[in-house]
Specification:
Layout (H helix, E strand, L loop, with lengths): L2 E5 L2 E3 L5 E8 L8 E6 L6 E6 L6 E3 L7 E6 L4 E6 L8 E6 L12 E5 L2
Parallel strand pairs: 2-10
Antiparallel strand pairs: 1-3, 3-8, 4-5, 4-9, 5-6, 7-8, 9-10
Length: 116
């Protein structure tokens, strides 16, 4: 069974850091490019960052470039998102997914709250 489970969210002050994890089961993270998105209830998800299948190519939304780092540990079958220097408008639910695949390849998300 394919499953993605995120963790690592929480509440931090502006300027703080969090490290999100996304543990995959039912498939190998090294088999696909993967992404982090921010969910907006009732709206399209907002793309944050992607890593390619080889694990060497990384891309970021301009709003997070220089502050977020996407990475992957194939041995742990886990995707990560290191989030640094967080401002309040980074608040949201962050979800990992395999782009272009079905709902099974999307995690439920983990809440990140940056409060003043």
């Amino acid at each position: 069974e394919v499953r993605l489970v995120e963790s690592g969210g929480g509440s931090v002050q502006p300027g703080g850091s969090l490290r999100l994890s996304c543990v995959a089961s039912g498939f190998a993270v090294s088999s696909y490019g993967m992404s982090w998105v921010r969910l907006h209830p009732g709206l399209e998800s907002e793309w944050v960052s992607s890593i390619d299948k080889e694990g060497t190519g990384r891309s970021y939304d301009d709003a997070v470039k220089g502050r977020f780092t996407i990475s992957r540990d194939d041995a742990k079958n886990t995707l990560y998102l290191q989030m640094d220097n967080l401002p309040p408008n980074d608040t949201g639910v962050y979800s990992c997914r395999v782009p272009g695949h079905g709902l099974a390849y999307r995690g439920q998300g983990t809440q990140v709250t940056v409060y003043s």
